[in-house]
Write a structure and sequence with these properties.
By secondary structure, the first copy, chain A, is an alpha/beta fold. Chain A is built from eleven helices and twelve strands. The complex binds 3-isopropylmalic acid (IPM) (2 copies). One 3-isopropylmalic acid sits at the interface of chains B and A.
């Protein structure tokens, strides 16, 4: 029995988690894939219940899980609070050693006209973002008259994420773009050098370097050029959100985060959308596709993952879209359409 | 007599500088605007001549100038060199205290079809990037096993650039978007707080905050929404290059950098394009428009600036474009067309 810890979180989180789990239930019925769900408080809801966005119980459950599903966290009511939901997310990433964040980008034919970009045909890349190092986890010092953040990377932290990218590229088009700011930053100089070194171990994979500023431009002017992009934490945060603009919506993009400790986490790339909370109109697709990613990457249930992904494609082909995609379907209708096509 | 120091630099730099200066000469003929040009070595060429990308002589001349024109620096031959052209640029910014980098974005009707974005009509914003602080100028430490960069901002550094943005907004649509990563960085928390404070001094200007990741997305999905964007050095580097993708070309975008010491610097946002060096096909427009910016911002020669800007518009209206804009005009032909329409 596979144990899946679910963190529904805040805003539309619980709605899309429920939708995703109903797809998982329908898809796995009469298969050999069995699982149990262990729902836990995380983010804002955990602050309300425990005064802590990542309560001890939640962390322990997550550590013992076979996989973790996260929907979304955050709410404006915590904006000026001393403890914020996002701190739980950063703490969870660190505690589970989830150093490799994977965000694939590929745009369904039916959704290409939603893109602000004229030509997104054949866009098919994945961004691998380092998730547990860099300026996110360096010392932060806030004073009245100045503030300091420390950006630090060890060679080992860089090596493992670069290797992860080269391994990913082997399963794809065998091209890695390493992104840094080596004309200014010491951490980037080290990054650049290590990327060159690791490339020696992968003679079948082609490496190119891009400066983060150029890459931010090329993502829009030449998105077809990329296969696997690998970058440090802060650059990855910016570039993955930028890349999602190619899809014209955040509502369909899944992600996974992997560590060395075994358990991986799967989540939509979008936020908790408090403005549409409780209205029953949230798009469940990125949650559903995150579940497909989980089936493939944590449980090696390739057939099951493909069945779910195909069902989403089928529903789109029948012109069933939620509001964010220009359609009229509610969360329940979109979910039902996916289940119908399983 | 106004003294203009010119730094033609490397690659296509000397070609576009010559083109720009011939437009300036033609435009100012028979006007009261008089000037003398003091050309100086800077960047790669200065490394070759002096072993230093910013020689003493160049810096002294720049300090005494009424304005500085920079074309472009950099060449792959310095990629692994101990001293690099970019170091001269960073040193010049710091030595002249050029803390406010201004990059306007507006897309000529005739060029809108070059944009990778479907709809760039009415895009009209300016990015104000802090240019002399942050992680660019913190301590950098590069070791074999780790590397560290220090990101530091003082409250005063933040205050003056935020004020600069509010002042700029007063001359425009009176809206400022302050961009930070306040959910993670201490420097961003300070930035965010100071933006709120300064906003009190400008009740006629509207302030909104965006996280840098969201902003990277909105620049592509909703570019019309922005008026004045203000952000710190590294975010500004990434976001301005990203924003330039809206234009589909770097060839037409000027910039200015201002400090407290009086002298300002004007330069195209593009690089030295060594691949087309010496071919006579470089696009001179961003250099020409940088000269117009200089006339307006350093010399208050509004009519002269507009005359040059209109001449560029006219040349475009007659379908005269360089190769990067899909046309066939050489640098000389493009320049002549602009001069013809003065
Ligand atoms: C919520 C925030 C701390 C987080 C980050 O910056 O990593 C988010 O933007 C993300 O990309 O997952
Ligand atoms: C050349 C480089 C150091 C510079 C920067 O990062 O500031 C450039 O990218 C720019 O934007 O002017």
């Amino acid at each position: 029995m596979n144990k899946i810890v679910t963190l529904a979180g805040d805003g539309i989180g619980p709605e899309i988690m429920a939708a995703g789990l109903s797809v998982l239930k329908a898809a796995s019925k009469n298969t050999t894939f069995t699982y149990e769900i262990d729902p836990r408080d995380f983010g804002g809801i955990a602050i309300d219940h425990f005064g802590n966005p990542l309560p001890e119980e939640t962390l322990n459950a997550a550590k013992q899980a076979d996989a973790i599903l996260l929907a979304a966290i955050g709410h404006p009511k915590y904006n000026n609070a001393p403890v914020r939901p996002e701190q739980g997310l950063l703490a969870l990433r660190k505690a589970l050693g989830l150093y490799a964040n994977v965000r694939p980008l590929k745009i369904h034919k039916k959704l290409q006209n939603l893109s602000p970009i004229r030509n997104v045909e054949n866009v098919d890349f994945v961004v691998i973002r380092e998730l547990t190092g860099g300026i996110y986890f360096g010392k932060h010092e806030l004073n009245a008259d100045n503030a300091i953040d420390i950006n630090e990377y060890s060679a080992d932290e860089i090596r493992r994420i670069i290797r992860f990218a080269f391994e990913t590229a082997r399963g794809r088009d065998k091209r890695v773009t390493s992104v840094d700011k080596q004309n200014v930053l010491a951490t980037s100089k080290l990054w650049h050098k290590i990327a060159d070194e690791i490339a020696q171990e992968y003679p079948d994979v082609q490496l190119e370097h891009q400066l983060v500023d150029s890459c931010a431009m090329l993502l829009i002017t030449h998105p077809q050029k990329f296969d696997v992009i690998v970058t440090e934490n802060l650059f990855g945060d910016i570039l993955t959100d930028e890349a999602s603009s190619l899809a014209g919506t955040l509502g369909v993009m899944p992600s996974s985060s992997h560590g060395d400790q075994g358990v991986s986490l799967y989540e939509p790339i979008h936020g908790s959308a408090p403005d549409i909370e409780g209205k029953g109109i949230a798009n469940p697709v990125s949650m559903v596709l995150s579940i497909a990613m989980m089936l493939r990457e944590s449980f090696h249930e390739i057939a099951l993952a493909e069945r779910i992904e195909n069902a989403v494609e089928q529903a789109f082909s029948k012109d069933i879209f939620t509001q964010d995609l220009g359609g009229k379907a509610t969360t329940a209708e979109m979910t039902a359409a996916i289940i119908d096509h399983l």
